[in-house]
């Protein structure tokens, strides 16, 4: 199991006490991750079994249980060892076992094997079966092996293999996984393998502190966090994602903000808003009509003419020489307010969306810099100069990517934080204005420094003298630290 530190929220930022020398001497690995932040671990396919067995071992030792009982308890408590132990301390072993369906019978005769000569009637198939053809579970219920096998096969195919209950009426005991594996493998070896895989993967599927990396195609890794499940993490495959909602890393947006923003950008809500602002419905067929000339007498493709000013159909009662029953010049406050509000909402959305998209596009273009920069570093290292360490370049590039992403997502954050959709009643108008001004000041400073950092990293430093390279190096180190701190403050 590989240790891997730092949530994405924390990875943006350096410690305020961080020195320039400290930044300069960081490892040159492109996927550098600061040590600061909640501890995370990457669980590979190979280390999954070991990670699961570690938790099993803890529970088995603390509660003096067999492995399948410990697994049953952990699956019920979603592999949260601390919560399991807290329930044990607060409510006792009896409550703990009953809730999870664990039955530990102390009677010795239950563990004794049935003799070859003895027979028992199976209450499922109602047949008399030899003792060695039956199996008794920990709960004491005994049925023939054929009935048990069929029961297990059905449950595994239904996807319930993690918690297969006893067949007896109203018995909540969970069957011993070793017995399930043994009986099923005799008839369906492939199904027994499936059963083992389900048990192994339950460590991830049922564990709120462990989740599969959402990479496509799947890298096969899972991420385990040690503290808060509401954080952002990075897999060894380089994918950065939100541990809570498994979407792309979206700080400073909350999961709800990002969900709403993604939907807003994806669906046709703003197209509808544009139609509301720039078109009017035909009074006959009700299709939206856009005016493409100066004349306020417009015609729909259905043949109907109508007045653009009021939307009324023109004809016998409404002509430009005679108006019957109403006047286009009369002010209708509700309609005007609705149209004006739609315009304001559209312009506000366009303001934030344009800036969000501009930084997202910049980030995509800058991601292509990696190969160019590494090539420039390679050329510089081959030159005969006193400069040998170019880790500041890759570290600066890495921080540029992260800062650019934070900057990009700061616009949907501001759209919802200072709008009326989510936090209308959370702040007064004055408080909102003050907080928005402070946030936008930080946003503007970050924007300015990110652009400067991008500019310096694009410099052809492989062609420069050592003194000029040293100057660029100090600028990149300074700007990397500044952008970290600005992200933190934002």
UniProtKB/TrEMBL annotation:
Domain of life the protein comes from: Eukaryota
Name assigned to this protein: Uncharacterized protein
Taxon lineage: Eukaryota, Viridiplantae, Streptophyta, Embryophyta, Tracheophyta
């Amino acid at each position: 199991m590989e240790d891997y530190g730092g949530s994405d929220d924390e990875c943006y930022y350096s410690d305020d006490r961080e020195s320039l020398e400290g930044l300069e001497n960081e490892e040159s690995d492109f996927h550098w991750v600061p040590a600061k932040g909640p501890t995370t671990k990457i669980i590979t396919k190979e280390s999954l079994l070991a990670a699961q067995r570690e938790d099993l071992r803890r529970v088995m030792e603390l509660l003096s249980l067999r492995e399948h009982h410990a697994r049953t308890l952990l699956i019920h408590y979603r592999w949260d060892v601390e919560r399991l132990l807290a329930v044990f301390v607060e409510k006792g072993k009896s409550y703990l076992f009953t809730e999870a369906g664990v039955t530990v019978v102390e009677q010795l005769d239950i563990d004794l094997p049935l003799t070859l000569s003895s027979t028992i009637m199976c209450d499922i198939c109602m047949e008399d079966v030899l003792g060695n053809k039956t199996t008794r579970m920990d709960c004491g219920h005994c049925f023939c092996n054929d009935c048990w096998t069929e029961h297990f096969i059905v449950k595994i195919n239904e996807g319930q293999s993690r918690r297969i209950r006893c067949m007896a009426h109203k018995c909540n005991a969970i069957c011993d996984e070793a017995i399930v594996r043994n009986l099923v493998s005799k008839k369906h070896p492939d199904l027994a393998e499936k059963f083992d895989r389900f048990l192994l993967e339950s460590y991830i599927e049922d564990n709120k502190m462990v989740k599969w990396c959402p990479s496509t195609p799947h890298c096969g890794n899972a991420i385990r966090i040690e503290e808060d499940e509401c954080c952002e993490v990075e897999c060894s495959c380089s994918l950065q994602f939100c541990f809570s909602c498994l979407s792309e890393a979206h700080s400073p947006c909350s999961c709800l903000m990002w969900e709403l923003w993604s939907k807003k950008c994806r669906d046709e809500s703003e197209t509808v808003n544009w139609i509301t602002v720039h078109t009017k419905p035909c009074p006959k067929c009700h299709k939206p009509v856009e005016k493409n000339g100066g004349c306020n007498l417009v015609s729909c493709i259905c043949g109907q003419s109508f007045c653009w000013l009021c939307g009324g159909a023109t004809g016998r009662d409404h002509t430009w020489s005679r108006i019957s029953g109403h006047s286009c010049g009369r002010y209708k406050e509700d309609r005007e307010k609705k149209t004006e509000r739609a315009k304001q909402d559209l312009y506000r959305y366009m303001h934030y969306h344009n800036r969000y998209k501009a930084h997202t596009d910049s980030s995509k273009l800058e991601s292509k810099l990696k190969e160019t920069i590494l090539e420039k570093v390679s050329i510089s290292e081959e030159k005969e100069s006193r400069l040998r360490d170019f880790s500041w370049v890759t570290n600066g590039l890495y921080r540029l990517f992260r800062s650019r992403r934070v900057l990009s997502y700061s616009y949907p954050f501001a759209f919802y934080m200072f709008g009326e959709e989510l936090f209308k009643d959370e702040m007064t108008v004055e408080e909102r204005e003050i907080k928005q001004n402070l946030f936008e000041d930080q946003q503007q400073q970050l924007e300015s420094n990110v652009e400067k950092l991008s500019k310096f990293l694009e410099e052809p430093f492989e062609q420069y003298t050592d003194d000029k390279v040293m100057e660029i190096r100090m600028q990149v180190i300074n700007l990397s630290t500044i952008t970290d701190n600005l992200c933190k403050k934002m």
